[in-house]
């Protein structure tokens, strides 16, 4: 064994079960005597419940019980991100609506039956009398006094008002004295996360032991356990949450929803296992949505292109209730990143969280940071245009210079390390930027519309120091823990609190352990996703699993190795400092023949026959890791598009991504994360948009109506990287789960506007579908309009 | 209604309600949970199987329509421990992340190569447009299919 395994693109260890159909997702679970649950959901966005009639449904075949709010004894679903200094309102979120529904999909009744179809049949027979109310749908207009009110004690539907500022007075002055001020009203359209696996839960109440087991589609089973304990009243040490195979999350499986609590309650009520699985249409109503901002942003600069300030006012939809992390997304994860990759002395973000009669909004891949990079990069392009400087040059002028150990930006964050110019140079070279601009000019002469978008980004990942979590109102820590246990035969179990669901840590973490300790990857098992089998951890989101949990795994493995070294020194009768370790062998320096293998040390530690004074038996270590800082991946992306004059169709011709997430543990997995992220962000730019009508009816309620990228929607993504280790991390890694999504939406958007600018088109609301682009071209006032 | 359906070489005779979809029959009646359900409008392709050797979204077919037919699911693709070349290609090229779309994607890809053994990248992309994946951005799926094509899968 050698350390080469770190950095090697080995095949994933989780794949054999996934490519053969043997993997077990939540809905695949079938337990003896299991009942099925269906949820009756509101078809109206806002209404009073006058009556619920369940008689007909009760008579339906196979029904064992029908329940409404008055039958339940569950606590409200809590919000877990209580922003400080924001006057946050936290109205109750009852698991079943009592007297009022507030969004299409709000749960009003439960049906429990002997199988899935019987439950659904009966659910269709539950009659609810509603008195419709006017709905508030748009987060900006919902704040007007005349707007319908969701909650009596939340004036103007304002859930919170949060501000980060480098200093208002200086900021005003900077804007006042600036040569150039550019502005934009940006709509970050609402998105549907669309993990391919819909949500599902199975609960099993053991009345003899008074224990509850819940299998569910979770990115963070330990958080689910804590919150489900609070909602159901089952003490947390009697509540086990298992996230089996999880089919993607993208943030949508972070929150604790009413549904998991209702399934738990139904199992406790009936004494039998109960399963619920949402359909895709139900998923679009009942699973969180992402984005949905209306933003007013502006940037101030000197004539030479140097940016002096950036500020924004954001109306961010929260939906009808505060979801688990909802308030933290358009604030902490958004406003604090207004500096992007640049040195900007004055920054202010005011974020207004607004209740609307829509599905709750929470973290969706990137969560707040794509929106931040979008506005920064949008304003950079506008500045470049106004100052008549090439968009690359205006960026280069403002980039934070290379730094290896900390750079503080005006929002108060300290970025860890970066060489943003190097990433930009690499991307430009890979794209052939100069040549591209020449091609663009040549094409223009032929009447073709080619556009180029260039983005520099930095992002905050690896959430995060727990002290900071407390200071920003996150109702938990953000550390991770790991146990590394070597058996007598030298096999390793690594128990982690994080909960990967597609990101490949069963492979990459085994690579870390193997590199640290010299045991083969095949002998290392990563155990995750079960609160009874794993130590506490806060889950997989925010590109945090490798930066935080990976650090805990690294340090726990080093502890194990150190113990094995001490044992080897004892058995080899040599001083510990004279013991060297290579390829799985401890040997006395200068005498490679006198060695003990790591497997031998595992056996000797386990039997405990001859341990040094004071050493405990066993070869095992536990490690908590609370990161000293966040990590800040960065990079530069370039998109090339061509817009069809006749149809408005946008063809994404090339996409170049240069990303720096520190050292790559498995470069193939890194590529997969970036490619997937980029395409998801391209989806927002070109295809995706969740639409409600004015009454709060969900228009894009199925996959028929909501377009996510298909295999033929995108070209090959051209990837490269720079590698700048994080200075504070044991193996220097950053995070890579969200980079693509954070950068790609604005890169493609800027490319399209770049193509259309000669026609006088400066803004189009996303997604940039052919009809919208065509309309924008038609109504453009500039020269070079469509040929007649 | 009584149906007789041969799945992965084994003949099953069952009494089913006429409204039962093939995908529910496979998952709930036969316990073959490798075939996943990702939507309710036949967009996502997660439930793709082969019927009489041709790809089929098993949510678009009633179990009674499969009466007397041969169905192959992801569980029937490997020969014992020997992976199908397409399964191996997906593994080799990292053509999957969360794995949920994968069974359907592999079944579609196998059918695609049976129809066109040496497709171009564009033909692969076009051929897989009925299968949605939210994780990979499709690039490594396309690489996997081209890899399988080159290795005679």
Biggest sheet, spatial arrangement of strands of chain A: 3-5-1-12-9-10-11
**Span of the ends, CA to CA of chain A:** 69 Å
Structural class of chain B: alpha+beta
For the sheet with most strands of chain B, the description reads: 5 strands, mixed
Helix content of chain A: 25-40%
Main pleated-sheet profile of chain A: 7 strands, mixed
- What structural class do the secondary elements of chain A suggest? alpha+beta
Q: pLDDT average of chain B, as an integer?
A: 97
Describe the protein's topology.
The complex is a heterodimer of chains A (about 800) and B (about 150).
Chain A (H helix, E strand, L loop, with lengths): L14 H5 L15 E7 L5 E7 L1 H5 L3 E6 L31 E2 L5 E7 L2 H10 L1 E6 L25 E8 L2 H10 L2 E12 L8 E7 L4 E6 L4 H12 L6 E4 L15 H13 L3 E4 L2 H7 L3 E12 L5 E13 L12 H4 L10 E10 L13 H19 L3 H8 L8 E2 L5 E2 L4 H12 L1 H13 L3 E10 L7 H6 L8 E7 L5 E5 L8 H13 L6 E4 L17 H27 L7 E4 L2 E4 L2 E7 H10 L11 E7 L8 E10 L6 E11 L6 H20 L30 E5 L17 H18 L13 H10 L9
Parallel strand pairs in A: 1-12, 10-11, 14-15, 20-21, 27-28
Antiparallel strand pairs in A: 1-5, 2-4, 2-6, 3-5, 7-15, 8-13, 9-10, 9-12, 13-14, 16-17, 18-26, 19-20, 19-25, 22-23, 23-24, 26-27
Helix pairs in contact in A: 9-10, 9-18, 11-12, 14-15, 15-16, 17-18
Chain B lengths: L1 E6 L2 E6 L6 H8 L18 E4 L2 E4 L12 E3 L12 H8 L9 H14 L5 H7 L11 H12 L3
Helix pairs in contact in B: 2-5
Short description:
The complex is a heterodimer of chains A (788) and B (153). Chain A has 788 residues and is α+β, with helices and mostly antiparallel strands. Chain A is 28% helix and 24% strand.
